[in-house]
Design goal:
homodimer; alpha/beta; Aspartate Aminotransferase, domain 1; Aspartate Aminotransferase, domain 2; 2 domains
Chain lengths: 406, 406
């Protein structure tokens, strides 16, 4: 008899985005003429940079002739892309990351979801709250948690990200083995200073823990004192891996390209305490279960690193940051406590009321869609997330409507 | 302390293709003027169909303007592609598979590797021998096997594919829970008749087992009496899922698009014997750990189903089949017992000697590269695989050289 992995039954059905869709549907039906502005989902809205489009077309043309056609590429990604990443994203920041430590993939969602496979079952795992649900759900599926109870999975250690700690979690009082961190944060938009990240790296070094550092929103950092990579912290290459994506950097959410950095120095342990190579393990996993990213997509991603590409992605992220700044200033002027919106496309707003109540009010009175913070975890209750991914004109109109609604 | 998944240590390092590369390297060094012809790896060599290229370009253009840009798509794939697949690959063959049972992905390697996650740990698993290593290695990583011993993993049930059964494994004498089958087969090139597949489906129905049916090479079937889909067998929708890929069908090995069929009828069980929905489980897995296939790639795949696309992919696979037929006839005329080469791009050749000895002889005397069958499992010893993925001219020359060499 073919028996299922019963851990799937522990998964709390994720109703967040379907609930949002239902409420929008109901509202639209009752108000057919309403012009709804969506500032909910974290998806980009603007075209791919011109330079990426050109490289994309050129690579598709290569696929049209036998003598320039590309079949299977290296699972880890082509050198042309890995070399540029190492040079421009890491060497330029004074870190020692090299091209052979970069694993190109089709998405950070996949990589953050799959990475836990490399580890033992009985780990103490720390996840932020509020949290990007993939970190949690993939560990539930793998059987590393207990049941869902009072809004949390038993057996996980939740790292509260709250006003009191500026949405950068405090070091845990107990010894954790695996820690998920995300900065600039989704959903709060908070960033971690060098001192704060150093504390986490030192904690990991001391406890032989591993940090899974999600830097998918790094392209929005404008304050140069904020670390862009965790490897800017000394010793991090021994205790951290880093996830990066072209999704938000260059508008690749529908194009699909990302990468994960696994330093060769990174130390993990077998049960007898021997040091093992995480790099070898991820390489084996990647080559066994993945067949590389589409060649034309890798060429499009490479174009991000050209001189013109750098100008264009800066322009692209600047556009969203202008939106974010506008939203932040307006919401603050309305009297709300906010974080993010600066070095981040997300604004995390303390609504001083139930998250869904605030959501419903904005929808019905301003026809603006946000995301209720409670959908990201217990610590998100009372908050909403507003995203800067829309046109500036729509953002301005949304703020005008909210001004009248509240 | 961050402890590893110790099952990774059980993995036998896969030296097959690196061993091949080393031997080629050594030979080339000693014979710098040798013109080596590679008929080893299973990778296509010819350009993407013209229709796919046009659709690909058009979709890249859509990504270049805000009003036609595509961000995140549905994780399961766009309807435009899923509908065509259901219509052209399944309804046309008299099966009841519908669009919402199709999950588009970036590769069958990923899907065949990931699917085991949905199941319990203590399953009786059947894998063919010789075998596509992904089926085995992913179960080793997941901890479903014992150690490697005498060329096999303990705890797996190997389904011998040998001359005596025409390389279609016999039904097992014991009750298996999960069975991997692949037809047209990689590496043997064998196909299963309707009667043979029906026996497997009936076995699965009787034993409440699940068949993971890999049909990556279906586009090479020309004999219309051979089932293209396992769903042509009555009852298969209750006990089988099917993997398909555009890699070999339309030359997408470097472009990346595939799909998996999980019928809503497909029954799996929880430990108390309750029926559970495999479709819901895979949907949950897919949405949690995957973010959809690149939009332009899905448009390129869709083009395969246009009238012109169908002509072009037929032309493409015909080309390789002509190579395969030529190789088969020649190798038979040299006195070798062969299978495949007909309804398949692979020819599986009984060399009447050690696989590596045959490999070395072909390399040194004919400068032709094949794949030693022993790399695919114990039952592959004594065989080599020759692949039809090369130009016709090279194939002809390779056979001429082999004629002189033996």
């Amino acid at each position: 008899m073919i028996q299922i992995n019963e851990n799937y039954k522990k998964l709390k059905a994720s109703y967040l985005f379907s609930d949002i869709a239902k409420r929008i549907g109901k509202f639209s039906e009752e108000n057919p003429s309403a012009q709804i502005i969506k500032l909910g989902i974290g998806d980009v809205t603007r075209a791919l940079p011109r330079t990426c489009i050109e490289a994309f077309h050129k690579a598709v043309d290569e696929m049209s002739a036998d003598n320039s056609f590309h079949g299977y590429g290296p699972e880890q990604g082509y050198s042309f892309l890995r070399e540029k990443i190492a040079e421009m994203d890491f060497k330029s920041r004074g870190t020692g990351i090299t091209a052979d430590e970069i694993f190109v993939s089709d998405g950070s969602k996949c990589d953050t979801g799959n990475f836990q496979e490399l580890f033992a079952q009985d780990l103490k795992i720390g996840v932020p709250d509020p949290v990007y649900p993939v970190y949690v759900d993939t560990n539930v599926m793998a059987g590393r948690t207990g049941e869902w109870k009072d809004g949390r999975y038993q057996g996980l250690y939740y790292l509260d990200s709250i006003e009191e700690n500026n949405f950068v979690p405090d070091l845990p009082s107990e010894k954790l083995d695996l820690i998920y961190l995300c900065f600039p944060n989704n959903p709060t938009g908070s960033v971690a200073t060098k001192t704060q990240l150093k504390a986490w790296v030192d904690y990991a070094l001391k406890n032989k823990a591993l940090i899974l550092f999600d830097a998918a929103y790094v392209a929005f950092i404008r304050d140069n004192s904020i670390p862009q990579s965790i490897y800017e912290i000394e010793g991090a290459d021994k205790v951290a891996i880093e996830f990066r994506s072209f999704s938000k950097t260059a508008g690749f959410t529908g194009t699909r390209c990302a990468y994960t950095v696994v330093p060769k120095n990174c130390q993990v342990y077998s049960s007898n305490g021997n040091i093992e190579s995480l790099h070898s393990m991820w390489n084996r996993r990647h080559c066994t279960k993945f067949n590389g990213v589409s060649y034309p997509v890798q060429r499009a991603a490479e174009a991000v690193y050209s001189a013109q590409g750098q100008v264009e992605v800066k322009e692209l992220t600047d556009y969203y940051l202008k939106n974010a700044k506008y939203i932040l200033e307006k919401m603050q002027s309305f009297g709300f406590k906010c974080t993010g919106g600066d070095n981040s496309p997300y604004i995390w707003i303390n609504g001083q009321r139930d998250s869904w109540e605030f959501f419903d009010m904005l929808l019905s009175k301003a026809q603006v869609v946000c995301t209720p913070g409670s959908g990201f975890g217990k610590c998100g209750e009372g908050y909403i997330r507003i995203s800067a991914f829309n046109s500036y004109e729509k953002v301005v109109e949304a703020m005008e409507r909210i001004a009248k609604a509240i």
